[in-house]
Design a protein that fits this description.
two-stranded parallel sheet; mainly alpha; 2 strands; 7 helices
């Protein structure tokens, strides 16, 4: 059963949320529920009784008493420096033009690259592709 929740957010956030909801075909309520489900702790979730997941859960002993999320974050941070990303010219165009709906993901990717040890590459072919795609709008 659904319950009502009232949020107080600034006007710009509301506008962005409505635009994003329209582009993705989801309601703001669905987006908020998905987000809240994403940040829920592992203690809040239980596998369906009798499911394969319920049978497998806890079947491998772990010699580390830390929460699983903490272990995953540590392991991810160890391997993140090894990760190399090839960025497609379309992703560059999404970033440069603010092209909807993908500019949000492109911004997020470039911010992640900027703020972490990720190594990213852009194909040399991407530069002329971007230039030719943007040439008409640059001349205006």
């Amino acid at each position: 059963m659904k319950e009502k929740l009232t949020l107080s957010i600034d006007k710009q956030s509301k506008k962005r949320a409505k635009r994003y909801a329209e582009v993705t075909g989801h309601s703001i309520s669905e987006m908020a529920e998905d987000f809240l489900n994403t940040i829920a702790t592992e203690d809040d979730w239980e596998p369906t009784e009798g499911s394969v997941v319920a049978d497998l859960a806890g079947s491998l002993p772990l010699d580390d008493d830390r929460p699983h999320k903490e272990i995953l974050i540590e392991e991810r941070s160890k391997s993140i420096g090894l990760m190399k990303i090839l960025i497609d010219s379309d992703v560059c165009l999404d970033l440069l033009t603010g092209r909807k709906p993908h500019h949000y993901s492109a911004n997020k990717l470039f911010n992640e690259i900027d703020e972490t040890d990720l190594t990213a590459f852009v194909s040399p072919d991407s530069f002329p592709i971007c230039f030719m795609s943007l040439a008409d709008s640059i001349k205006r």
